[in-house]
Amino acid sequence: MEEKLASLRRPKRGRPPRPREEHTGGALKAETDVGEELAPRRSQRKRAASAAAADDQPLIDIIKHNGRLISRAVKKLVQEYESKKNAVAFRILTTLFEACGAKDHGIRPEHIQDSDDVDDIVFSLIDTAREGLVEHNFNSKKKDGLSEDFKENLVSFWDTLVLECQNGPLFDNILFRKITDYVVALASTPPRVYRQVATLIGLQLVTSFISVAKTLSRQCESIQSQSNAEKKKKVSDGRLVETLDKRLALSHENITYLETLMKKIFKDLFMLRYRDVDPGIRMSCIKSFGIWVVLYPSLFLDDERLRFLGWTLNDEHAGVRRASILALQSLYEVNDNIPSLGKFTKRYYRRMIQLADDVDVSVAVSAIGLIKQLLRRQLLSDEDCGTLYDMLVDAPPMIRRAIGELVYEHLIVQNIKTSQVGATGEDNESSEVHIGRMLRILREFSDDPVLSLYIIDVIWDDMKAMKDWKCMISMLLGENPVTDFIDMDGRNLVRMLRASATKAVGERIVPTMDTRKLYYNKTQKEVLKNRKREITSALLTRYPQLLRKYISDKAKISPLVDLIVLLKVDMYKRQEKNFNAAIDLIFDAFFEHGEKDTLRSCIKAITFCCNECQDELQNYAENKLKNLEDELVLKVKTAIKEIEADDNKYSLLANVKRLYELQLSKPVKNAGLFEDMHRILSHPRDLDNEVKSFLLLNMYLEVVWCLHTIDGENPTEASIDVLLSKQCSLFEQLYYYLVVLPTCQKDGQNTFVLSCRVCIITAEMWCLFKMSKYSSTRLESLGYVPQLDNVQNFWKLCEQQLSISDETGYEDANAEYIDDTNRDFVMIAASKLVLADAVSKDYLGPEIVSHYVSHGESTTEIIEHLIASLRKNGNFDMEALFFEALRRSYDLCRTRVHDEENTLLGKSYSECENLASRLAGSYAGAARNKNKSEVLKIVHDGFSFALADLPKNLSFVEAALLPFVLELPLSDIPDILADVEKRTRDANMNGDRSAWASFVKELRGRLKDDVFQDDEEKPVRRRCGPRKVRNAPTKKPFERNNSSDEESMSASI
Question: Where is the sequence biased in composition, kind Basic residues (predicted)?
């Protein structure tokens, strides 16, 4: 047996195995005897080595590096206490001092014999810190992770010490009273590291005392029960009763003693350190206090002490505020605490609600959780929380999610009155009930579909009823009648069904700053596939019924049509009849409605079926799309003929809208439709501006698709001729409106939307056919360069739109298509021409830049991006661009002077100054030296322009050149002054001399300031800090009013 065990035993590394002994005879020994003779196992050897190490190592080294030996070391310490009280007490206090970092403290056992020596010893430790002989264990930045391990082991040591001493030394009124005195004293000292360690130890001592006190309380209850039972006996044992009463009295005495220590630490440590300058100390205090109140409410749960949690809700540090909130959360979770919290809640509930909008997201989320508890306990009313619902849209995602949980629990599940925390009631109520409550919430936001989506998004994860597809479909079909179900609820329920299905398949339903594509792992993809199957299964036969019921409702049909792109359409293979019916209904909806959303939904749905379906389903969808295209072309042609016959103008508008939406997704084959649209635009008729806009858009899209179909490698002459003909026809119409529209607006006609369309389409056409794109190719004949007069007409119309506010321009306009027709899009179109080099930059570039600061922040950002993009092009002449922009802005100011527009004069002159300041600011910082030559060129050209026509252009110097001159180094200003004085010596300066005098005075003032600055005596920098004040009055380290001392000492240690 011994031989077998030896063969299985793993040999030590680096040592050859022990040779086996041969056994030639005799009976084998019993297994127990063999086990005793074998060498100790590896674990036994480790334990023996650990025990030896625990006996030899100092306590501080065990706390720092070997936390698993703490329990053994503490047990040995407690065993030695009875025979060596002073020595053990000295070791424990020495460990306290060394944990604070005072390793070379020089304190001997006789120094701590007398409790009156606490002050002297603490002052000596403070002197040690002033001399820099402190080891910062608490905030160690070493890579070995000493700080976190040290904290954990330090707390474990003191907790273990208290628990091991609960049957003896804890209640001798010597050891722990002395420990408490030193901990409180060190926690009130200036060195921050002392306060950090001592505060952590003091807080843990209270927590450990509470644990022992609770154990004693349970013992008291047990002893009291035994005593009462014994006393009720007919023949009671008097000696036993007396013994039990003595034990009960002793337990009560021990509890009182522990509470005395806890009160001392609370009063002399917590009440000072909860407002310490170190946020980490404040946070530790509040966290511990939250634990104390929950574990030992008989001592800590009162308004006098709870106020500390209320005060720290206003702490400047987010971690402290969050710690206070979490402490309150744990407090409100206990049912028995609620009656004692009424006064506190009434005083601080407003601050709790304010913290839901805290600048720190983690604090805000925690505060919302606290508010949810208050609502559950009926300590807040719905009116108090009204401001929270406004954050469902604007707040960060985590805050919106937290508010969504609150809304779900408080308004949908309505478990507010339940006594059990966490009981949601989800399983006790039907889906119809929860959906009905959700619809009542959505009624408040029915006018804003986007806001409704935000609410659905934040509640979706919690609300199972929102994933009950069959229930929502039955409610829409009227199979499950719901009381108080109005038409608005039906509209919101359709939105909810579409949004919920969209989220179920893994797509976003609300805008987000993160535009990256969502990626899912294999398991998540499988979940999304199963959800898609569930949705499709629920809608398989019901989808045509929904479309048929709501096909005439323009508010509901669009989200219903959108549902088909979320389905697993291959499941319709066995439901071909229902699939065909759904496609037919979508086809009918396209021609029944003219709203943008409905049209796009129908086109997207049929196109999706053409791409995703197979076999017969795909053929049916493709044929239906072809029929839709043919019927639409026929309707447009018929409408044009009706217009030519002065009949039914609405038909043309509705059908050109449909044609535009269809052409956005695919080319439309037609015979002569482009020519028909050109013909009706060419003849002067009373067409609505919206009709003209859509006719131009359709002509432009036809040109784009025509260009797209041409083979760039082997183009045919016929295809090029057709495209050139359409290009010429469209340019003819655009150039006509570039000339006509400015005069129409002057006559008071509202042509804002049409003008924006013309500007945008013109710019797109010039970029599409710019000469550099087709030169040296087989499509060179398609290249186009606009004439300067056309570019000038284009910018004139653009300028006119920029001067009109969007609100004024959108009067009587269709709200569906105004998003892409505003001043910003006009400026983007013009800037695109400059960047693409499609027109002459010498004219259009300066004109755009001259409007840099004239039309609001959005336009300024667009031009700023244009300037940045042009600067990246090293070949572009930026100084010429800036100078021409300044000159044209100044010319506009002078033009208004001659026109005697006094109101506009001040504004235009101010805009010229602001433009110069903004352009000069682009040369500030590192760009000053890099682009110094550009600034000098702008200044030189500016002086030439100003002096060329004196005195008329003299004010140009102050308005446009002064900001650039001030960006130059001071060494260049004397040369500029000398050059200017030389050039103006014989010039006529009798005009507006105020601008000239202001310019010269500013430059000379800068030179004078520079001279004075050089003459000033520079202060000498000290290498060390300020001298210390000697013989300063001493102060007791544990006096309360020492915040300033703590701050100053903390800064130096």
Answer: 7-17, 1020-1030
